[in-house]
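ok new one. same drill as before - structure tokens go in, u give me an amino acid for every spot. 163 of them this time. try not to just spam alanines like last time pls lmao
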């Protein structure tokens, strides 16, 4: 199964200057819980936004750069190659950035989206989720609190017609 996992604002903002715009500890915990032990596919800029590779996950990095060096990671030149290199029985998670998310919308089976209830200035955005292709299967609202500056909702979308 191919799952897109992201946190996006009301205006679909993902980040700015290769960094997150908000800090939601519960969302980080959920991301870790869902992706640990699995393959995570990302663009080079997303990978470079981490201080180090995320533990207990197989990193697949997509880049146009020849000879890109990322020790203990798989480096490929396209999303198609990234998916082809992963075991067919494995749960794959597409973790960003905006361009990789856009390329993944047609092939993904599921979207795990954290919708941050605010609009932000950003330079990277999550693609539109076409209602003709996706159905909102589940959502769970979380109000802001002392650890979370913004309200947010976990949303699970399922593809209507799985490719």
């Amino acid at each position: 199964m191919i799952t897109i996992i992201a946190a996006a604002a009301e205006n679909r903002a993902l980040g700015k200057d290769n960094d997150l715009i908000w800090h939601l500890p519960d969302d980080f915990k959920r991301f870790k819980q869902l992706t640990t032990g699995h393959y995570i596919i990302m663009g080079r800029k997303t990978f470079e936004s981490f201080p180090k590779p995320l533990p207990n996950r197989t990193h697949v990095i997509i880049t146009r750069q020849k000879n890109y060096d990322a020790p203990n990671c798989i480096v490929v030149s396209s999303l198609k190659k990234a998916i082809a290199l992963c075991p067919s029985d494995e749960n794959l998670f597409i973790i960003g950035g905006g361009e990789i998310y856009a390329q993944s919308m047609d092939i993904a089976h599921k979207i795990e989206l954290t919708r941050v209830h605010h609009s932000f200035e950003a330079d990277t955005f999550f693609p539109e989720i076409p209602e003709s292709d996706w159905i909102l299967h589940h959502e769970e609202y979380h109000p802001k609190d002392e650890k979370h500056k913004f309200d947010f909702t976990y949303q699970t979308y399922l593809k209507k017609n799985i490719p």
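Strands lie at 2-9, 13-15, 39-43, 58-62, 74-76, 92-96, 110-116, 124-125, 134-142, 152-159. and btw The first helix runs from residue 25 to 35.
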